Predict the 3D structure of the following.
Amino acid sequence: MVDPQNTPARSRPGVVTISTYLLLLFAICQLTSVVVTLATIGTVREVMEDAYRDSTVEGAQNIADITVVVGVGIAIFLLVVAFALVGLGLLNLRGRNGSRIATWIVGGILFCCSGFNLLSGFVGNFSAPGEASGDMPSGEEIQRRLEEALPGWATPVSILLGVISLISLLAALILLALPKANEFFRKPTQQWEPPTPGGAYPSQPGYPSQPGYPLSPGYPATPQQPAEPGYPVTGGQPPAGGPGSQPPPSDGPEQPGTQPPTDRPG
């Protein structure tokens, strides 16, 4: 007999809780990166427009607009996905294995994107493809102009946020793969418990009683026939010799002129 109420409740291990906190830290870092990007994107656009203003190459003047759109788009995309990971982390706290698998998939893709974004920050992702040719500026020239125009805290903060994001995301994914986490996400098996000897089984609910049949109405009493002369009417007789008793009737009607016999003295 399986008793679902006696199934032991699963206790959430600390590695799952820490993993959710790390995913939240990753989302906070991405939010801060978006704020930094929006605060410096105007300066980046001015530098790009100034660098390609004198270029005669077709489409060179649109590079500044493309750079702004791509930079802001990537930052917002990473932020949305980061908060989606936070939602998956909250589901992980409930022991849902499907959310853990989704966390691994989304987190792995996001880890690659964040790593590429961090690597681009080291080498300079605003450089034009190829080397300088004609009146097109080189990547080194654009990077030098950006370092001169941007605030001194912008690049170190961006790199620091990128490193913290990668470490927290990687640690969160690893914690979800530990043996303690596997036991938590595994479906609990219901344990069978034998019935206790002498224990009473739960009584079955009684059936509702049938409604009683109505009593049959009594038949009307038959009228009594008039008693023949000389016979008493059927019914209760008063006790003999009691007060108000009457002498028993004679067997027949008395003849006129006759008297009842009297005892003669001997």
